[in-house]
Design a protein that fits this description.
125 residues, 7 strands, 5-stranded mixed sheet, single chain, alpha+beta
Length: 125
């Protein structure tokens, strides 16, 4: 399955989770439910994956964690905030660049309709 195929599955799963739960819960609840839904569909989902950064040849564990990494290809960052900010987009783009991933999603579940909470972010590598 390539990134585009995964995109469709991730977006549909996010919509399903949001439809079932609605807005107003903690990010951890959406993360657990989305991870369950993706795994139920046969995808490999890593949750709260430690993500060190490299600096001058050293790997430094500075506390970064990917919310979800799907099939070792797509980064999913989950939010439950009033409004997505540029810093949230920058966070996902940084994860993509540091991990040399091509595609990421920023999903804000604190919206009336999930379609308004989906941001697809591509790393130009």
């Amino acid at each position: 399955m390539n990134e585009d195929d995964l995109s469709k599955v991730i977006v549909n799963a996010a919509i399903k989770v949001h439809s079932a739960l609605g807005a107003g819960l903690l990010e951890s609840a959406y993360e657990a439910c989305l991870a369950h839904e993706l795994a139920r569909q046969g995808l490999e989902v890593k949750k709260q994956l430690p993500f060190p950064i490299e600096y001058e040849g050293m790997k430094l564990d500075v506390g970064y964690r990917l919310d979800l990494l799907v099939n070792d290809m797509v980064v999913v960052e989950i939010k439950a905030v009033e409004k997505l900010l540029p810093v949230h987009m920058a966070q996902v783009l940084s994860y993509l660049k540091l991990g040399q991933f091509k595609l990421g999603f920023l999903l804000n579940f604190n919206v009336a309709h999930m379609k308004y909470g989906i941001a697809r972010i591509v790393n130009g590598l």
